[in-house]
Each structure stands twice: as structure tokens, then as C-alpha cells.
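Reviewers of the previous submission asked for a worked example of the structure-prediction workflow described in the proposal, so we include one complete record here. The input consisted solely of the amino acid sequence. No template or homolog information was supplied to the procedure at any stage.
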Amino acid sequence: MVNKAHENYNFSSLIRQNEEYKLFLPDDFLAYGREWSTSINGPFIKHNIGNPYQSQNFSKKIKKNDIKKILLVSDGININMLANLSKKIFTLLKNYQVFIRPHPIERHSFKKSLKLYKHIKIDNEENIYKSLLDKDVVISEMSTVLYDSINIVPKIFILRTEKSKFAIPTHPFNEVKNINELVKKINSNKKFNIKININKYFSKDWEKNYNTYIKKFISKQV
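From that input alone, the workflow returned the following C-alpha cells.
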């Protein structure tokens, strides 16, 4: 998550002004969009390019299901918490199927343990956008999938824990702090996420932006 809470992309003034240290940093930083580039202070030139992967998959048609589906997304260190949360959701929301998407680093190690939860379906789809197309709700503590879900999934919720407050201090999503609040919002007819401007996070025309950058980069080397 490239933001102001990530220490690898934010530096003290002493570091930013140290010419010797800057020799070990990139000269250029290519960002998905302005929200990412403006939230970091690294001493490099920032360019808002866009996300080719997001652009190529965003045009796919959203699927409608007879049974509504909830996707819980792990960030790599909280899958046991999500497994317990999924059990509560399954108990309280009988008309929903519950899926857990393990982080890539967890896929093999947790596959067996998740099978112990008979109510859980494991989301093994490699392409995150294909996975999101038939989901009605996405829930995560601090995964970038929250941003991938914008304008695709009707209801996106961020679990507001101490960890997510630290890792994602600002965000555009609807917050939930406990299971009762979550269930109430899932059952609500209220529309969420309608005011999120996706262009802040994923710049338009990535190919054009990238080619423009490459031309400038090449001209500098000549």
C-alpha cells in the first residue's frame, strides 16, 4: 500500500536532502494515480500513469447472482481473524455465500485449515477483477483489493481496526468496527461508494501516459 503511512516511500528532510543517499533511490516513480503519488514524499520525480491491469479488466460485465456473495480479502497476516468473522457472517446472514480470498503468500499454507470451516468457500480465482464481478460485498482490513473494487462491487467495507488505522489513515470507504455494524450495513438498502472518484486512484489513458513518459525518458538519455 503506497501511502503516507508506508515508511519505504516517506523520508525525513535529512534523507530527502542528502545527495549521496539519493543515489540509491530511483529517479522516477510511476504511480497508478495522483492519490498515490501525492501521499508520498520520496525525493524522486512522480508520474501518474494509470494501471494497465485495471484498465484491461474493468470493461468486463458485472454478473448477477441468484444468491448474493460476500468476499473477505486477507492482507497476508489476518486470515484467522477473517475465518472467525466469516463464521459470524454466515450465522447472521443466511441469504449470502461467504468467500475468503487468501493473500498470495497464504494460498498454500492456509488452504487446508480453511477447509475446516465448512461454511467458507475459498476464492482461488487468479484474476482479482474476474473474482469481483459477481460479488455483492467486499470486506477487508487493509488490502489494495478495496481499491480494485471501486465501481464494480456495490458495497465495500474496511474493517476499522488499530492496524488499519495505522496502515491506511485516510481512505474513501465505509468503515465498520464490529459484526453488528457490518450486518446492519449489509442489510441496508443504502447505496455506498457512489461518491468515490476512481480517476483519483487510477489515471485514465495509461498507455498514452506511459508512452509520453517513455519519450521524455529517452530524450533525457540522448
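The radius of gyration is 20 Å. We consider this example representative of the routine output the project will generate in years two and three.
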